[in-house]
Amino acid sequence: MSEFTAFPLLASIIDRVSLKGYTQPTPIQQACIPALIDGNDLLGIAQTGTGKTAAFALPIINKFGQNNVEIKTKSTRSLILTPTRELASQIMQNIDDYAEGLGLKTKVVYGGVGRQPQVDAIEQGLDILVATPGRLLDLIENGDIHFKSLEVFVLDEADTMLDMGFFKDVQNIIAKLPKSRQTLLFSATMPAEIEVLAQAILTKPTKVEITPQAVTADLVNQSIYHLDKSNKVPLLFDILKTPEHQKVLIFCKTKYGADIIVNALEKASITAASLHSGKTQAVREEALQNFKDANLRVLVATDVAARGIDVDNITLVINYNLPEDPRNYVHRIGRTARAGKSGAAISFVVENDIRQLTNIENSIGQVIPVVTEQPFHKEFSKAHIAAKKKKATKKPSRNSKNHKVTNAKKKRR
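^ thats the sequence. predicted structure below, dont judge the formating
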């Protein structure tokens, strides 16, 4: 299937997709959309950046657009549960774009903002609700929402829910949902807890797996810069002195570190802002919107705050610090390879980072080239590198295929 027009979607949805500049579906969209239109449960193993929001949103919008029913008070026809406020907002924005003109009632709810407008919207009944676990549990416990009319449940970024400590909350929410529903579970990885959950909540699911190599190997020009820790800021300035990259996302380890980098950039007259959990929700939303609108050249983020960032035309990702978890490396660099576009990713590596780097390379199944023609290059001790690599966890390379799909019989409800 090579065009969105080949899907049995409403003409208005096809038009909205086209207006966003998309004509050819990504592999996950090719696999998911027909299965979801058929009513199947689905297990999607895919990271952000593969087009999975449209993969689940378009069939839901299509279903409700074709079957506009009277919605009961304090209820929703679908629930999309996602870990972070930023990701929830972005999913809602995409849904509203795709659903324009269909008259669907939608709302996003999360903590850190006033709850009364959220309660008032749910009181009227919703077609689509996007929520984070904490605020949704608060609404449930206060009797502000019920799920008697729920038709579709989407659990997005399940492994991130686990990493962020939301897994118990997710289980409590699922216990409140009706058994008869269409269920979609998306996760970038499949730790044991997620596998058990998938078996418990999915019925004869279609399985779609998009491997990280589709992003890391083919679309992102990756490179390593060896240097001393004291030269990180000077190297950052050297990279940014050329106008080639006008939208740059920098990842660092800590909230404090993110603010230090921003202060240094602002002193050099480079527009920048930080994105981390120490900021209020209003400040985080303002920073992200300014970055989307190109009012900021640089956004400096921690992993948790940046998970699921969907911003067009990021041309460069810089790993100011390497992530401890190799999975986060793939999530990070995927910010610059959205919807089939290419980009660049530079990782700053000091001598003590060799073990982390080796784990990352084992995880993605490739050796990332080192750039020596840069002003702060440092030759590392070969003995030190060998010792660090020996300690690194050995991981087998992933299957090189872009994706695999297992079809299941259509589930009738």
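The chain has two domains: 4-211+401-406, 214-391.
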